[in-house]
Amino acid sequence: MKNKTKTILGAVLCAILQFNVANTEAGGVTKYNSLSECALQAVHQQEDIDKLSVLADNAKGSIDKMYLHWSAMNYENAYDDYHINIGRFGEIRITCNELTEKKAHTWRRNSRAIGISMDCMLDAAYREGKTYWGPCPPTNAQIRTMALVIAVVAKHLEIDINKDTVMTHAEAAIIDNYGLGSGDPEVRWDMLYLIDPDTCKEVPGGELLRDMSRRIK
Fold first, then answer.
1. Single pTM value for the model
2. The domain containing residue 94 runs over which residues?
3. Which domain CATH number covers 148?
Protein backbone atom coordinates (compact mmCIF):
# COMPACT_ATOMS: atom_id res chain seq x y z
CA MET A 1 0.00 0.00 0.00
CA LYS A 2 2.87 2.34 0.79
CA ASN A 3 4.32 1.94 -2.73
CA LYS A 4 0.88 2.53 -4.26
CA THR A 5 0.46 5.75 -2.28
CA LYS A 6 3.90 6.90 -3.35
CA THR A 7 3.08 6.17 -6.99
CA ILE A 8 -0.17 8.15 -6.87
CA LEU A 9 1.54 11.04 -5.06
CA GLY A 10 4.13 11.06 -7.81
CA ALA A 11 1.36 11.21 -10.40
CA VAL A 12 -0.17 14.23 -8.66
CA LEU A 13 3.17 16.05 -8.48
CA CYS A 14 3.78 15.26 -12.14
CA ALA A 15 0.33 16.62 -12.95
CA ILE A 16 1.24 19.96 -11.36
CA LEU A 17 4.10 20.28 -13.83
CA GLN A 18 1.98 19.06 -16.74
CA PHE A 19 -0.74 21.57 -15.87
CA ASN A 20 1.68 24.43 -16.41
CA VAL A 21 2.72 22.94 -19.75
CA ALA A 22 -0.86 22.22 -20.84
CA ASN A 23 -1.91 25.80 -20.22
CA THR A 24 0.74 27.09 -22.60
CA GLU A 25 0.16 24.70 -25.51
CA ALA A 26 -0.85 26.24 -28.82
CA GLY A 27 -4.56 26.76 -29.13
CA GLY A 28 -5.23 25.41 -25.65
CA VAL A 29 -5.99 22.00 -27.15
CA THR A 30 -5.00 20.14 -24.00
CA LYS A 31 -5.78 22.91 -21.53
CA TYR A 32 -7.33 21.77 -18.25
CA ASN A 33 -10.00 23.79 -16.47
CA SER A 34 -8.21 23.60 -13.13
CA LEU A 35 -5.13 22.21 -11.43
CA SER A 36 -7.31 19.80 -9.44
CA GLU A 37 -8.82 18.46 -12.69
CA CYS A 38 -5.32 17.86 -14.07
CA ALA A 39 -4.17 16.13 -10.87
CA LEU A 40 -7.26 13.90 -10.80
CA GLN A 41 -6.66 12.92 -14.42
CA ALA A 42 -3.06 12.02 -13.56
CA VAL A 43 -4.21 9.76 -10.71
CA HIS A 44 -6.72 7.99 -12.95
CA GLN A 45 -4.07 7.58 -15.65
CA GLN A 46 -1.64 6.03 -13.17
CA GLU A 47 -4.31 3.55 -12.06
CA ASP A 48 -4.89 2.59 -15.70
CA ILE A 49 -1.14 2.24 -16.30
CA ASP A 50 -0.95 -0.10 -13.31
CA LYS A 51 -3.82 -2.15 -14.77
CA LEU A 52 -2.13 -2.24 -18.19
CA SER A 53 1.07 -3.47 -16.59
CA VAL A 54 -0.79 -6.44 -15.11
CA LEU A 55 -2.58 -7.19 -18.39
CA ALA A 56 0.71 -7.07 -20.29
CA ASP A 57 2.39 -9.35 -17.73
CA ASN A 58 -0.44 -11.84 -18.24
CA ALA A 59 -0.06 -11.64 -22.05
CA LYS A 60 3.71 -12.09 -22.12
CA GLY A 61 4.63 -14.73 -24.69
CA SER A 62 1.25 -14.47 -26.44
CA ILE A 63 1.46 -10.90 -27.81
CA ASP A 64 4.43 -9.56 -29.74
CA LYS A 65 3.09 -6.66 -31.84
CA MET A 66 1.29 -3.35 -31.33
CA TYR A 67 -0.63 -1.50 -34.05
CA LEU A 68 -1.30 2.21 -33.64
CA HIS A 69 -4.47 3.88 -34.89
CA TRP A 70 -6.72 6.88 -34.72
CA SER A 71 -10.48 6.35 -34.64
CA ALA A 72 -11.31 8.91 -37.38
CA MET A 73 -14.11 10.06 -35.08
CA ASN A 74 -14.54 12.56 -32.24
CA TYR A 75 -12.73 12.81 -28.90
CA GLU A 76 -15.58 11.44 -26.79
CA ASN A 77 -16.14 7.85 -27.92
CA ALA A 78 -14.02 4.76 -27.35
CA TYR A 79 -14.27 1.83 -29.75
CA ASP A 80 -14.24 -1.89 -29.02
CA ASP A 81 -12.19 -2.62 -32.16
CA TYR A 82 -9.14 -1.67 -30.10
CA HIS A 83 -7.74 -2.96 -26.82
CA ILE A 84 -6.85 0.54 -25.64
CA ASN A 85 -8.37 3.92 -26.53
CA ILE A 86 -6.86 7.28 -25.60
CA GLY A 87 -9.10 10.30 -25.03
CA ARG A 88 -8.53 13.99 -25.68
CA PHE A 89 -6.84 14.71 -22.36
CA GLY A 90 -4.84 11.49 -22.29
CA GLU A 91 -7.52 9.37 -20.64
CA ILE A 92 -6.67 5.69 -21.01
CA ARG A 93 -9.76 3.66 -21.86
CA ILE A 94 -9.09 -0.08 -21.65
CA THR A 95 -11.66 -1.88 -23.81
CA CYS A 96 -10.70 -5.49 -23.12
CA ASN A 97 -10.51 -7.91 -20.23
CA GLU A 98 -7.27 -9.41 -21.52
CA LEU A 99 -4.77 -8.18 -24.11
CA THR A 100 -4.94 -11.63 -25.70
CA GLU A 101 -8.51 -10.97 -26.88
CA LYS A 102 -8.52 -10.98 -30.69
CA LYS A 103 -9.98 -7.75 -32.05
CA ALA A 104 -10.54 -6.44 -35.60
CA HIS A 105 -8.15 -3.49 -35.58
CA THR A 106 -5.68 -4.15 -38.42
CA TRP A 107 -6.46 -6.16 -41.56
CA ARG A 108 -4.68 -9.55 -41.58
CA ARG A 109 -2.63 -8.57 -38.52
CA ASN A 110 -4.88 -9.24 -35.53
CA SER A 111 -3.25 -12.43 -34.27
CA ARG A 112 -0.70 -12.03 -31.44
CA ALA A 113 -1.28 -8.28 -31.61
CA ILE A 114 -3.01 -5.44 -29.78
CA GLY A 115 -4.61 -2.31 -31.22
CA ILE A 116 -4.12 1.07 -29.56
CA SER A 117 -6.12 4.06 -30.82
CA MET A 118 -6.34 7.79 -30.22
CA ASP A 119 -9.97 8.96 -30.27
CA CYS A 120 -9.64 11.77 -32.82
CA MET A 121 -9.40 12.82 -36.51
CA LEU A 122 -13.08 13.25 -37.37
CA ASP A 123 -13.44 14.59 -40.96
CA ALA A 124 -9.66 14.62 -41.48
CA ALA A 125 -8.10 14.07 -44.90
CA TYR A 126 -4.78 13.80 -46.69
CA ARG A 127 -4.72 15.46 -50.11
CA GLU A 128 -1.93 16.48 -52.45
CA GLY A 129 0.75 15.84 -49.87
CA LYS A 130 -0.93 17.83 -47.10
CA THR A 131 -2.67 16.76 -43.90
CA TYR A 132 -6.05 18.35 -43.19
CA TRP A 133 -6.49 17.68 -39.50
CA GLY A 134 -10.21 18.48 -39.20
CA PRO A 135 -11.94 19.60 -35.97
CA CYS A 136 -10.46 16.82 -33.79
CA PRO A 137 -6.69 16.60 -34.40
CA PRO A 138 -4.50 14.46 -32.13
CA THR A 139 -3.69 16.45 -29.00
CA ASN A 140 -0.30 16.62 -27.35
CA ALA A 141 -1.78 14.72 -24.41
CA GLN A 142 -2.92 11.90 -26.69
CA ILE A 143 0.47 11.64 -28.38
CA ARG A 144 2.38 11.62 -25.11
CA THR A 145 0.00 9.11 -23.56
CA MET A 146 0.22 6.77 -26.56
CA ALA A 147 4.03 6.82 -26.23
CA LEU A 148 3.68 6.04 -22.52
CA VAL A 149 1.28 3.15 -23.19
CA ILE A 150 3.65 1.70 -25.80
CA ALA A 151 6.57 1.90 -23.37
CA VAL A 152 4.69 0.28 -20.49
CA VAL A 153 3.18 -2.53 -22.57
CA ALA A 154 6.49 -3.28 -24.31
CA LYS A 155 8.32 -3.42 -20.98
CA HIS A 156 5.88 -5.90 -19.46
CA LEU A 157 5.59 -7.99 -22.63
CA GLU A 158 9.40 -7.97 -22.75
CA ILE A 159 9.54 -6.98 -26.43
CA ASP A 160 11.73 -4.40 -28.17
CA ILE A 161 10.26 -1.22 -29.60
CA ASN A 162 11.06 -1.16 -33.31
CA LYS A 163 9.24 -0.95 -36.64
CA ASP A 164 8.54 -4.69 -36.65
CA THR A 165 6.92 -4.77 -33.22
CA VAL A 166 5.28 -1.31 -33.05
CA MET A 167 3.71 -0.12 -36.29
CA THR A 168 1.17 2.51 -37.28
CA HIS A 169 -1.83 1.52 -39.36
CA ALA A 170 -0.42 3.71 -42.15
CA GLU A 171 2.84 1.71 -42.13
CA ALA A 172 0.97 -1.62 -42.11
CA ALA A 173 -1.34 -0.46 -44.91
CA ILE A 174 1.59 0.52 -47.13
CA ILE A 175 3.13 -2.94 -46.71
CA ASP A 176 -0.22 -4.67 -47.34
CA ASN A 177 -1.13 -2.50 -50.36
CA TYR A 178 -4.03 -0.46 -49.02
CA GLY A 179 -2.14 2.70 -48.07
CA LEU A 180 -2.34 6.12 -49.69
CA GLY A 181 -2.00 5.92 -53.46
CA SER A 182 -2.99 2.24 -53.61
CA GLY A 183 -6.44 2.93 -55.03
CA ASP A 184 -7.97 0.63 -52.44
CA PRO A 185 -11.42 1.89 -51.34
CA GLU A 186 -10.51 0.91 -47.74
CA VAL A 187 -7.34 3.02 -47.69
CA ARG A 188 -5.81 3.66 -44.26
CA TRP A 189 -3.32 6.36 -43.29
CA ASP A 190 -3.53 6.47 -39.47
CA MET A 191 -0.48 8.18 -37.93
CA LEU A 192 1.12 8.80 -41.32
CA TYR A 193 2.14 12.11 -39.78
CA LEU A 194 1.77 13.66 -36.34
CA ILE A 195 2.73 16.99 -34.84
CA ASP A 196 5.73 16.56 -32.57
CA PRO A 197 4.68 17.96 -29.17
CA ASP A 198 8.20 19.29 -28.55
CA THR A 199 9.03 20.88 -31.91
CA CYS A 200 5.49 21.55 -33.26
CA LYS A 201 6.68 20.12 -36.60
CA GLU A 202 4.78 17.58 -38.70
CA VAL A 203 6.82 14.37 -38.72
CA PRO A 204 6.26 10.67 -39.56
CA GLY A 205 4.01 9.38 -36.81
CA GLY A 206 5.50 5.92 -36.37
CA GLU A 207 9.03 7.25 -36.01
CA LEU A 208 7.89 9.89 -33.52
CA LEU A 209 5.96 7.48 -31.29
CA ARG A 210 8.66 4.81 -31.30
CA ASP A 211 11.33 7.38 -30.45
CA MET A 212 9.22 8.95 -27.66
CA SER A 213 8.37 5.56 -26.15
CA ARG A 214 11.99 4.38 -26.17
CA ARG A 215 12.96 7.47 -24.17
CA ILE A 216 10.48 6.70 -21.39
CA LYS A 217 12.14 5.00 -18.41
1. 0.84
2. 62-214
3. 3.40.80
